[in-house]
Design goal:
It contains 14 helices and 20 strands. The protein is of the alpha/beta class.
Amino acid sequence: MTPDVASPGIDISSPTSSLPAQVSSKMSLSNSPSPAFPSSFASKDSRGQRGATVASAAKQLKPFATEDIKILLLENVNQTGRDILAAQGYQVDFLKTSLPEDELIQRIRDVHVIGIRSKTQLTARVLREAKNLIVIGCFCIGTNQVDTQYAAKHGIAVFNSPFSNSRSVAELVIAEIIALARQLGDRSNELHKGTWNKVSSGCWEIRGKTLGIIGYGHIGSQLSVLAEAMGMTVLFYDAVNLMALGTAKQVPTLDSLLQGADFVTCHVPELPETSNMISREQFEQMRTGSYLINASRGSVIDIPALIDAMRSGKLAGAALDVYPAEPGGNGDYFTNDLSYWIGDLRSLRNIILTPHIGGSTEEAQSAIGVEVSESLVRYVNEGATLGAVNMPEVNLRSLTMDEPNHVRVIYIHHNVPGVLRKVNEVLGDHNVDKQMTDSRGDVGAL
């Protein structure tokens, strides 16, 4: 909930506590408006009652000094995002790599905002040490690297960029479809070794072939349009009924898609329901000589079963951009030390292996940097949770310079009866211009 409160300065006084109390503690989860943070952040109103307070001064639009906000950005977050955060006056610490868990714990203890991509693992153990953390920015599509449930229960919002790299992933899949159909990877490797091997056997045009898309979201639907433009027939399977674009057709079961497609591509989130979604039984359902592409999540494909399907000739080719386990940084790490089957996977012919680069284009990373950084700024400065993956969505207009006596109170709390009543008792003597509240599971935002 985010009420805008117009009141004399004497009723809502400025706290004398330090920034960690002002920023992180005001986001603490509590069963009631009783302060769940150091008592210095609570003040007494004219009736002697305790209530949460936010610093206010003439023409001061934020209840904190922006230069005191500490941000840690890992994994080479794009310059566009760094520039947006730095322009706010925040302290931005930037690293090109991820960090081992123990080092991450040391670095996260005094930061208010952390920005990551796909390699950094923000587990409950890590988040437990992040006493000042109020928000996490995932500069990517997925958030499975974050314990979002733990974060929500401790008042930490999580934002991501679900749309910005959709086109880049879709284009990569189109490129892989053509490369697999023409065996480009094998021909290129052979010529690099000095072998001239001009053949047409087993090489195909993609025009007139059928593409089966598992998951018809932002990526799947864009891919559908691109594939149709190249003369392919498109089938798709999704857990919910969706409107097809162009002449694409939704099929009722996964088996019907596997049986009808020449190329199968996966675009689903990492969920218990999608773990090993394509395994031995599903490979048996696929057409002999068909192709499989996975640019979604590494847990979706049963890799040993894929290896067997390739060796038996059931599949004519495959392209993988994601894996059940991935190295924490660049280097010679894609070996059996990471997963026991990697050597067998690397030995296969007509298989494209890429290091999770589906969204790794300049355009996508720039757009992601802008989208996530702007979400972080809105949350830190205004408390807006629109787009948060683990919080109720609340949003209010920005305060203006003409409202020097207004303050905004953000209260993240357990979703239990009585919270609103107690909050309104605290604010009873003040003029509340607007109040918004929403809940999501066990978490409420006021």
